[in-house]
């Protein structure tokens, strides 16, 4: 089913204070979505509110499942539902070959994966119940072409990629005509932030069956 637009939809953006997060929040707000942005730093969230005045911001440690559940319940209480989740929590740290892949680096990447698991589990029933549920995440070309120096990063991204495609399978069963989980694949986000924002907005105009479980290269024509 083609849901048309995110206008009037309630969308939660996790990791919203990055450059890409600001671009996604602005694109969704410009398209008429009711945007709830989540971050850890109050000063960065204040800057986001200055850039996009219509956004509602929340400070939350997304690695804490109980805190995530409380956050989603709060958004649900204000809006009645959550129609979309855009997960942008992540980052990059390199290593020195296989033996240089430190446990500290793995813990850094695993934190992003844990936030993905927590937010998707907390929002899943909302996405199923929504007339136009959408989940979007960012993956990397490193999943298909991993290197020894980025083994931790590629492995964590592969886990996140697989998790979202598993969510997509669940949505295919539980909400086959209305919901979709999509992975955008990039080599790097620098310079592509506005394209990402546009691509996220276009998810609502694409038939759910076309984008559910899809791994889409981030490009101007990625959704046709």
Describe the structure.
- The chain is an alpha/beta fold and 224 residues long.
- It has one domain (10-217): Rossmann fold (3-Layer(aba) Sandwich), CATH 3.40.50.720.
- The chain has 7 helices and 7 strands, in the order E-H-E-H-E-H-E-H-E-H-E-H-H-E.
- The chain has helices at residues 19-30, 42-51, 65-79, 103-129, 151-174, 193-202, 208-211, and strands spanning 10-14, 34-39, 56-59, 84-87, 134-140, 180-186, 215-217.
- A 7-stranded parallel β-sheet has the order 3-2-1-4-5-6-7, with helices on both faces.
- Helix 3 (65-79) runs parallel beside helix 4 and helix 4 (103-129) packs parallel to helix 5 (151-174).
- It is globular and about 50 Å long.
- The two termini are 16 Å apart.
- The model has no long low-confidence stretch (mean pLDDT 93).
Kindly list the characteristics that best describe this protein.
single chain, 224 residues, alpha/beta, Rossmann fold, seven-stranded parallel β-sheet, 7 helices, 46% helix
């Amino acid at each position: 089913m083609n849901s048309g637009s995110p206008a009037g939809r309630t969308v939660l953006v996790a990791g919203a204070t990055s450059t890409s997060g600001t671009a996604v929040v602005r694109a969704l707000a410009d398209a008429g979505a009711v945007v709830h942005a989540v971050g850890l730093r109050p000063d960065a969230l204040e800057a986001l509110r200055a850039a996009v005045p219509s956004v509602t911001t929340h400070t939350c440690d997304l690695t804490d499942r109980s805190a995530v559940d409380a956050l989603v319940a709060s958004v649900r209480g204000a809006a009645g539902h959550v129609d979309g989740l855009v997960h942008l929590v992540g980052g990059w740290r390199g290593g020195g070959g296989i033996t240089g892949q430190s446990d500290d680096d793995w813990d850094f990447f695993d934190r992003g994966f844990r936030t993905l698991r927590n937010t998707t589990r907390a929002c899943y029933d909302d996405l199923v119940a929504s007339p136009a549920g959408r989940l979007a995440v960012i993956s990397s070309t490193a999943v298909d072409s991993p290197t020894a120096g980025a083994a931790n990063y590629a492995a964590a991204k592969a886990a996140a990629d697989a998790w979202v495609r598993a969510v997509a399978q669940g949505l295919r069963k539980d909400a086959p005509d209305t919901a979709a989980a999509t992975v955008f694949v990039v080599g790097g986000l620098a310079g592509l932030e506005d394209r990402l924002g546009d691509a996220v907005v276009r998810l609502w105009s694409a038939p759910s069956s076309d984008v559910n479980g899809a791994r889409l290269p981030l490009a101007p024509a990625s959704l046709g």
